[in-house]
Design goal:
Elements (H helix, E strand, L loop, with lengths): L4 E2 L20 H11 L8 E3 L5 E8 L2 E8 L4 E10 L1 E2 L6 E2 L3 E7 L3 E6 L2 E3 L10 E3 L9 E3 L6 E3 L2 E5 L6 E4 L26 E6 L2 E9 L14 E7 L5 E7 L5 E3 L5 E8 L3 E7 L6 E3 L24 E6 L5 E6 L7 E6 L4 E7 L18 E4 L4 E7 L5 E4 L2 H12 L5 E7 L5 E8 L2 E9 L4 E7 L11 E8 L5 E8 L10 E5 L13 H8 L3 E6 L8 H9 L3 H15 L9 E6 L1 H12 L6 E5 L5 H4 L12 H10 L6 H4 L12 E6 L5 H19 L4 E6 L1 H4 L3 H20 L13
Parallel strand pairs: 37-38, 37-39, 39-40, 40-41, 41-42
Antiparallel strand pairs: 1-5, 2-3, 3-4, 4-5, 6-7, 8-9, 9-14, 10-13, 11-12, 14-15, 16-17, 17-18, 18-19, 20-21, 21-22, 22-23, 24-25, 25-26, 26-27, 28-29, 29-30, 31-32, 32-33, 33-34, 35-36, 36-38
Helix pairs in contact: 1-12, 5-6
Length: 740
């Protein structure tokens, strides 16, 4: 681990110069603009001390990540801590920006933090021989078996006082025992030899011991040995480690507020998951009882067939360890949140429901992050709801009142209570929306006073950003459509061209409030619509079913409806509309351009899923069945009776009309990457045969990480494509006709 150091230099933000969108940005000007937009935000992680006197937040400096500790009463910085260094990236001169995976205060104003896990492979690329001779100093001539080289796992957990004193490394992967009982054995894959510690937080009533888990291994094939999952208690001042629990299984264990293992998730490849439950202080695991009154369609077990249907999702436990909190959509369109007493098997009074929003995500593996815990009273206080417009539904009436008071000060913004002190006098509030990534405030409740503490991107003045507004309207069949509209401050053409950008994923994940790439596209002179089309996550079963019935046509129809809605309210050049998408949304974009060439002048796609059938199947040389995710996606896409090979964009070669810009990743070679590459190659061949222009570029990890050099290179290529195929009036795209 890199040595913990205190820094004394004040950090100043680099203010990016304004860019006139009316001009094509010069190379250096574009690079500086991208550098400002993709610079890591301040406060990517933030935390309020238990007594409300101190705030800690992250801030990136050249080459390293700092933690800034602020005394809220005196309004002074008490410490600047070097938490981690930027890391090299293969095939790039730029470095990956360091991040934290954990930041939390404990008693005595002591701060716990952990950089992201780093795994460094073996130092040699070629395998060593199985045996070797001892050194000449031990002239025995004996031969010994050489165990496989194991990668180095760097996963430190650190602690420091609020003033930067008493720094201590609490734990790292090497702190814990090797996972095998026989460390010299050589028949286990290297990646299973050392597991990184997973931080589970603090148990109720004990903030002097951090709970750290080392996940186990169920065993398979030639390596049948089962290695238990272990939970350790780490003292935050001495670093002393004691083992708290040891459980068989692969680490998919959920704990109650007291730190007791209570739920175990059993998964089988391609078949789904079931859950086991354990009573407090019991060593016996039993099948988790089904939720009361749910019927056969509301089971906790999940299969590919039920993933998008009616089911229940265990979330965690309340202050009463007998009460489990769970989500269910049995008999409903959306997921609500409820409580059940596992002893009596009766529902509790807890019932949180929303008529239009799912209160949890479909992915049960992420469900434990939904609950908002009151660390002072050791209770579940509310539920965080994902989506374009973040929502917190409070169980605690007092916190609900504070939420309303904070929202009243920021109309049309998203307001999130991130933390509070024990007396609930001082709150840490995050505000997002409008023309900036976000700001952090201190809300002094009794004085009804908001004090700004930090801007996520102070180097991006609001006057230099393009206005972004959230919109909602009733789309086809009355289905609610939403998204964000970014309007260029000085378009190159008046009226400006439009980019219609689909939400990615399956189900599509809603667009975030602030998007740096949308700002770059607005710099190029575009109005940018980031559309949450039908099927987007969090809108209930009926919304998902609309996409399931027509995965090819529904997104395109939604985009046309959004164009009509925008054109009725803003001046926009309907002859210059581009469609954009990533992954499965890239498939939506290509099909929209094929189905409606009269509406979409060109298509821009990143890593597009072109052939849906190969996407939901394991590669030909794979030994096992399809994965759970592949089965879920196949069942969803075929739910409307569609034949997946016929949905591929390349199955409609005669429908190509519009130029295509396609970007794919060049530094990976997974089965999915190969499938994408095969589809793109077929698409380029079809476009070439029809004399339709296309541009293909590759990007690497540095682009994915948002590093300015890599982003600038790709955006230059994209801007040139737009100049040739969208801005240029002389380009002939041939006669347009509707292709069905």
């Amino acid at each position: 681990m890199r040595t913990l150091a205190l820094l004394v230099l004040l950090l100043t933000g680099l203010v990016s110069p304004a860019v006139r969108a009316a001009d094509t940005p010069a190379p250096r000007l574009l690079e500086k603009r991208v550098e400002g937009l993709f610079r890591p935000p301040a406060g990517e992680r933030s935390a309020l001390s238990l007594d409300g006197k101190f705030m800690a937040y992250t801030q990136h400096a050249p080459g390293e990540l700092l933690i800034i500790i602020l005394d809220l009463e005196r309004r002074v910085v008490t410490a600047r801590i070097s938490a981690d260094e930027d890391r090299p990236i293969l095939h790039s001169r730029e470095k990956r920006r360091a991040r934290l995976r954990y930041l939390e205060w404990t008693e005595g104003s002591r701060l716990i933090f952990a950089p992201e896990i780093e795994i460094i492979g073996p130092p040699v690329k070629t395998p060593l021989p199985d045996t070797f001779l001892l050194s000449s100093a031990e002239e025995t001539g004996s031969r010994f078996q050489v165990p496989p080289l194991e990668p180095t796992v760097i996963a430190p957990v650190m602690a420091v006082d609020h003033d930067g004193r008493n720094p201590l490394q609490l734990a790292d992967a090497k702190t814990f025992q090797t996972m095998r009982t026989d460390p010299s054995a050589a028949d286990m894959p290297p990646r299973m030899r050392r597991a990184p510690p997973l931080i589970r937080g603090f148990a109720a009533g004990d903030r002097t011991h951090l709970l750290v888990e080392i996940q186990g291994y169920t065993g398979y094939g030639a390596f049948p040995e089962m290695i238990p999952t272990k939970l350790f208690r780490v003292h935050v001042r001495t670093g002393k480690i004691t083992e708290a629990h040891s459980e068989p299984g692969n680490g998919q264990i959920a704990y109650d507020l007291a730190g007791q293992p209570r739920l175990a998730r059993e998964s089988k490849r391609g078949q789904g998951s079931a859950f086991l439950a354990r009573a407090p202080d019991s060593g016996r695991w039993t099948k988790l009882p089904e939720p009361p009154g749910a019927g056969p369609q509301g089971s906790f077990a999940v299969t590919p067939e039920t993933y998008f249907g009616e089911r229940a999702i265990p979330l965690g436990f309340d202050a009463d360890p007998a009460v489990m909190i769970y989500a269910s959509n049995a008999g409903r369109d959306t997921f609500g949140v409820y409580g059940v007493n596992l002893k009596t098997r009766q529902r509790t009074e807890l019932s949180l429901e929303h008529p239009e929003r799912d209160l949890v995500a479909l992915d049960a593996s992420a469900a434990d992050r939904v609950l908002v815990l009151d660390r002072h009273h050791h209770t579940v206080a509310g539920v965080r709801v994902p989506g374009s417009r973040p929502l917190t539904v409070w169980m605690d009436a007092e916190l609900a009142e504070v939420q309303r008071a904070a929202e009243a000060k920021f109309p049309s913004r998203s307001v999130e209570l991130r933390d509070w002190d024990e007396g609930r006098h001082r709150f840490l509030v995050q505000v997002t929306g409008g023309t900036e990534p976000g700001r952090a405030f201190q809300f002094q409740r009794h004085e009804d006073l908001m004090v700004e503490l930090m801007r996520s991107a102070r180097w991006l003045p609001a006057a230099e950003l393009h206005a972004t507004d959230y919109f909602e309207f009733a789309g086809p069949g009355g289905a609610p459509l939403s998204g964000f509209l970014t309007r260029p401050r000085a378009p190159r053409l008046n009226p400006p061209p439009l980019i219609m950008w689909f939400a990615p994923g399956l189900p599509p994940q809603p667009h975030a409030e602030f998007d740096a790439q949308a700002q770059v596209l607005a710099d190029m002179g575009f109005m940018v619509c980031r559309l949450n089309q039908r099927g987007v996550a969090g809108q209930g079963a009926r919304h998902r079913e609309a996409l399931r019935r027509d995965p090819a046509g529904a997104p395109a129809v939604d985009a046309l409806a959004a164009i009509d809605w925008i054109a009725a309210r803003h001046r926009v050049d309907r002859k210059r509309v581009a469609v954009l998408g990533e992954g499965l949304a890239g498939h939506f974009a290509l099909r929209a351009a094929q189905l409606h060439p009269e509406a979409f002048r060109c298509a821009v796609v990143f890593e597009p899923i072109i052939n849906l059938w190969t996407w939901v199947q394991p590669p030909p040389d794979a030994a096992g069945p399809p994965s759970f995710t592949q089965e879920v996606n196949r069942i969803f896409l075929q739910g409307g009776g569609a034949r997946l090979p016929e949905l591929a964009a390349t199955a409609h070669a005669a429908a190509w009309r519009s130029p295509v810009f396609v970007a794919t990743r060049g530094d990976r070679h997974s089965a999915t990457d190969q499938q994408i590459a095969a589809g793109v190659a077929q698409m380029k061949s079809q476009l070439s045969r029809r004399d339709i222009p296309w541009v293909a570029v590759q990007f690497n990890t540095d682009y994915v990480e948002g590093l300015p050099g890599a982003r600038t290179r790709l955006y230059r290529e994209l801007e040139e494509f737009f100049n040739l195929h969208l801005y240029n009036y002389d380009v002939k795209i041939g006669p347009t006709r509707v292709v069905r």
